[in-house]
Predict the 3D structure of the following.
Amino acid sequence: IYVNQKSADMFGLDKRDVIGRRQNDLLPPDVAADFMRADAEVFRDGKKAKTRQKILQDGVERTYWTIKAPFDTVDGRRHLVGFSTDVSELEALRKELADLAMRDSVTGVLNHRAFREEAQRICDATQDTGTTISLLVIDVDHFKRVNDVHGHLAGDNVLHAMAQHMQRHARATDVFA
């Protein structure tokens, strides 16, 4: 019945071209199905519904949070109103923070926490298949001396270079942390 231009911009259309069209006509099938599920929930329960969609716009994936809420008219008909917010920048920051929380700041490789999670995932997966796995622990001899004699920046450079070397020579299936 109504759409503002900002919402129509999500579809790359003028708002006059959105009014009267169905979600199936405007959105990829999976996104339209998610919207229709939320619509059905609003009409069935009379409560607001929340969804999160990823929509490809001009070759760029955008993330939207949408809230749909019911409203009843005086004639007793139930309608819904939807509000979508582009949270693509927030989503990118969330991904960046998640990555930072899982990687060592000096070497860029998985940190201890991420290693434990990945090791558990691998152990769980191989337990069912009986696949053999190996763990290799590397210790840099006399590394404290590098820090003491040349400083922590030099030590960080050594660790970074070692990590880069190991990653270049690791197989795609190897986990280096």
Q: What stands out?
A: The radius of gyration is 26 Å. Helices lie at 5-10, 15-18, 23-26, 29-45, 88-102, 112-129, 143-150, 152-169.
